[in-house]
# Entry
Amino acid sequence: MCASFTLIIPDLPGSGNSALERETSIADMAVCVKTILDNEGIDKTLIAGHSMGGYAAFAFAGLYPAMVAGLSLVHSTPVADDEEKKKTRLKAIELIRNGGKNAFISQMIPNLFSESFKQSNVQAVKEQVDEALKMDERSLINFYEAMIARRDHVFVLEKAHFPVQWIIGMDDNVIYYKKILEQCDKSNINFVSFYRNCGHMSMVESPKKLEADLKEFANYCYNPRSK
# Structure
């Protein structure tokens, strides 16, 4: 990917080395991405997002559609949380606030993977758990509150003048694949890839396939001759 395209990975507030200085919404995350692109002198981009990153990508496309060359959703959806999902997130927030962050992460992260991957890649799953444990409670709570409060972005698909890519894990326990399929025909141009024996973490479970699919999509978005 990097040999063919300029790749920018935003360090959003509360993640990586960026401190969470105030409550940050999904829309705020999109604004952060816009600021980065402006600073880099980039006026059009393929924006890709995994899970919550996909929510931010949808928010970006809704706020700045003219800047979008393509939208790639890696295990994500434009649909806002329903009441059941909100209740689940609120329970997680309560657990974290009561000192249960480590227990929550140790249970939640393995659930992101397919059963077959968990059984044959114990160390890889452990590494993801260890990385997630580095996040502080305040940031984790903020992310869950932001996801609860986010708006529905199906309208982005209905108005999209750009191609949309869907990466779908057939064993995804977080977003049921049929729920994502319901959105795949709402935009004019769609790239849909199914990942068998894969959960919510294709970048870990099927990295080579994900890289190939992202590169194919990027080539389509940026090379008029491929259209």
User: Anything to note?
Assistant: The CA atoms of residues 6 and 207 lie 19 Å apart.
